[in-house]
From TrEMBL:
Lyase in keyword set: no
Organism superkingdom: Eukaryota
Name of the protein this chain belongs to: Mediator of RNA polymerase II transcription subunit 20
Region ranges (Disordered): 45-70
Length: 213
């Protein structure tokens, strides 16, 4: 699996960042169009059961006031749907990421709807390009009608280890002179140096960069 780098640029530029990057890519390279690509990311929050309560009683001088109930810790689950992997859904929950068939989404919606609430839905639409040993995908990220920014995905196809590909990908991106943004390589959770890159690492990258975006 090729090493992948992700770049998120908040939409604060004029002209839009996606126009700047696409123009520079075409002028400085000879990209081969790969067609349209999309993704959807959903952040769901668990609806925990209500905390047990005890009957209240009058407080006597010897009794201390009732302590406030502890705050409930919410759990989150993330779904990622990448159009260039059309038969799978990435699911990140409790720091564990897996891929599943798309029927899982139907199960959650129909059987587990009362347990989870969708807190955020992000969608992206853009185009992919092949440039020598790279695959570059650029897309506008939106939440409803609001443009949140631009996501750039860069795959370096000849290698599958970060130690080999990170500097090369960063140099390629720097050559496009992107506006200030956040670059993500190894996920903060679940990746060990020296291990071969996998598709799950790419999915975890997306979930880390998009959560609470």
């Amino acid at each position: 699996m090729p090493v992948t780098g992700l770049y998120f640029i908040q939409e604060t530029t004029t002209p839009p960042a996606i126009s700047i990057l696409t123009d520079r890519l075409s002028k400085r390279h000879q990209p081969i169009p790969l067609g349209r690509w999309t993704f959807e990311h959903r952040l769901l929050r668990e609806n925990p059961p209500p905390l047990p309560t005890t009957p209240s009683s009058p407080t006597s001088p010897q009794q201390s006031p009732q302590q406030p109930a502890p705050l409930q810790q919410h759990k989150f689950m993330q779904w990622l749907d990448l159009s260039y992997h059309p038969y799978m859904l990435f699911i990140l929950a409790d720091k564990q990421i897996v891929t599943s068939e798309r029927e899982f989404e139907l199960i959650v919606r129909s059987k587990m709807a009362s347990m989870w609430t969708v807190r955020q839905t992000l969608r992206a639409v853009g185009y992919g390009y092949e440039v020598d040993d790279f695959r570059v995908r650029i897309a506008d990220l939106t939440q409803g009608d609001q443009v949140k920014g631009v996501v750039v995905e860069i795959e370096y196809t000849p290698c599958s280890y970060i130690e080999q590909g990170e500097g090369i990908i960063r140099d390629f991106m720097a050559g496009l002179q992107p506006p200030d943004g956040r670059f993500t390589f190894a996920p903060n959770e679940g990746y060990e140096s020296g291990r071969e890159w996998t598709l799950l690492d790419t999915g975890r990258q997306y979930c880390e960069i998009l959560r609470f975006r």
